[in-house]
Amino acid sequence: MAISELPSPDGLVLHPFRGVRFAVDDLAAVTSPPYDLVSPEDVRSLLDVHPNNVVRLILPGADQHRYSEARETLRSWLESGVLTVDDLPSLYVYEQSGPDVLLRGLIGDLALSELEKGIVLPHENVMPATVADRLALMKTTESNLEPIFLVYEGDGVSASGLVDEVATTRPPLVDVRLGDGIVHRLWALTEPAELQTVADALYGCRALIADGHHRYATYLALQRDYHDEGRGPGPWDFGLALLVDSRVYPPDLKAIHRVIPGLPLEEAAARAKGAWQVHEFAHLEEALEALAASTGPAFVLAGDGPCHLLTGPDPVQLQHAMPSGHSDAWNSLVTSILSEFLLPKVWGLQDDEQTVRIVHHDPFLAAQMARRESGTAVIVPPLTVENVLAIAAGGERVPRKSTSFGPKPRTGLVLRTFATG
After folding, report:
1. Which residues, 6+ apart, have CB-to-CB distance to 180 below 8 Å?
2. CA 9 to CA 397: how far, in whole Å?
3. In angstroms, rounded to a whole number, what is the distance separating the alpha carbons of residues 121 and 5?
4. Global confidence as pTM
5. Is residue 394 in some structural domain?
6. What is the mean pLDDT of the chain?
């Protein structure tokens, strides 16, 4: 079946659904970060805290039976009452609050739309292997186990005003404080008039995928597969999503750093001197301060020994390295320069999963990993939301692992199954 034959609304649509939620005494103990931020060590730690942690569903293991094991675990938790289904279809007001953190939005069933319509805007490409893994999990469990995160530019009044009114005046369904001090709360919107207010406010908007590109690609693949099988319209025409009005709650956009095992720091710095200005710093803190103050493309190299700040790339070499098929805006991104110039032209490496490891946010953790791997950490400055919106609106994609929007929704607070959603 062609994509044009799939249900695809002409506006941004968020439907209510019957949420699936944990019914355990210690809700904090059964939640987790999103699947792509959970290491194997994290899995063991989370399961040590509680055997029913949601990580058993989102990362069910490595053997060939892992997807069916996740399905059976989900089924047994529903039958035993570990998980329960809300009585009424709802949109869920979601709040994260804590020191320097306040985010509010709506969790619901996002109607899937063709990317060509420009209603849902991706800004990153996806890795086929990751989509295949998430597709197998969603198909086997027939569920969406964690919401993707999207931001939209609303009017700052109608939907967001309702969200704020609910969060400040009504008792929550869920109120849980995690070890990092962040409090997560949920409220259910079920009244038809309130649901209509949200629907009217969202329909004329478009949404940028902040986090969850692979899952959104999986939603679309699952929809195509089920329609190809002749199932027709159904819950697979929607995907679990959190929508946040960026006019009211601007997202926090953090950097994603690289670690190159086996490339010694001094060798990396020496080879960079032919194309960059290289400045040495004894301590990472000093190098990071200099990075923050830099104008133009810049990176910090860290690992075993003094740190090095790279600035002022040779303009001729840089121009020859950047692809002609991309816009000037794309070619000026630091992550584009990293993936097209620094890694392949200066070091002869590709920015792929086999060569380069990823560290979200923490430059000190990246440096520690580089020392452990006898390699080099590349500390990358964050992009801006304006950078990302401009690239997405122009129909381009930033290089892989360019952005880390936050604060990310906590996994395990509300799930969605096809049988109930």
Report:
1. 98
2. 23
3. 20
4. 0.85
5. no
6. 94
